[in-house]
Design a protein that fits this description.
By secondary structure, the protein is mainly α. It has a single domain, classed as ABC transporter involved in vitamin B12 uptake, BtuC. The chain is built from 15 helices and no strands. The two termini are about 25 Å apart.
Length: about 375
Amino acid sequence: MLPHIPSALSLSLSTVDVTAYRRVGVGVGFAAGAALSVVALLWMLLVLTGHDAGRALGAFWAGSFGSGYAVASATMVRAIPLILAGLAVAVAFRAGVWNIGAEGQLLVGAAAASAVGLHLGEQLGGLALIPALIAGAAAGALLAGIAGLLRARFGVLEIISTIMLNFVALHLVGYLVRGPLQEPTGLYPQSATLLLAARLPIILPDTRLHWGIIIAALTAVSLWAALRFTAAGFRVRAVGANPVAARIAGSIDVGATTFAAFLVSGALAGIAGGVEVTGVTYALYEGLSPGYGYTAIAVALLARLHPLGILITGTLLGALQAGGAAMQRDAGVPSVLVSIVEAVLILAMVSGARRPPLARARWAGVGDDTRARSATTT
């Protein structure tokens, strides 16, 4: 049961709830407009660089939405880690926490899932998937918890700590694939391959789409319900909307709420890494993530931090990555050009938001404190 909510704080949050779906619709509209704009920019860029624009755009479409196989095996497979990592970013940002470390949390989650899957695959068979994904979530939460502890105990900005921890995770994976987890021959910097029993099953025959898509969808729905209907979700939304008002008018422990948001965010990113290892790569190696954790920031912002909207935006950016790879492979477009196109699309999507969600963060300014004090005196 939700606690008693003072009128000023309740009114503020009810207004946010009423407009939540409208924000998602606006975000999707901006995404569609941005996609059309970038197609035009891409065509111009291809022409200016001397490439066959028609062939390149045809390859882009064929590699992303051109067939059922492309949708299932390319777009959706790339969308799965983007959705899960996007949910991780959304949880943190909704609580006013700038977690930029989803990339590192994803990597340590992948490492932990690989270690558990390799050691328990023979003993537990298919049941090894459960402890492997749990280990991934725990590893991601642990890394995020370090940043949360540094913020709570020493006042270290999480923007700095989470970015630095990304490099710690990157080098940790490099150490593991050359040391404790290296494959038996010692020739390659990667782990051994997971047994078939320790992999996520394929959900559609003759495709690469695995059960991770179900995990991602259920996680999005569960997170939406938790934020919308539970006391813990109310506390997260209250702290993210105005931490001063939440503490004074709502009697909410802001520090505990933000630390819990850190842990949940890290756990979701860790699950993304575990799902990628058990469903796609089947082994741990350097370069396992092409920047999923960073792209997830755009996924979350485009969806206005709404968990259900992230299902759409994650799919859109998954299609972008799949189509870009097809352009490079089938039309001879250099990878640098593909990266430019991806960056332009992300910037267009994020800049299309009329009201940046992060404007409600705890450091929004003195005006928030003034409004909070005003609310408590009325």
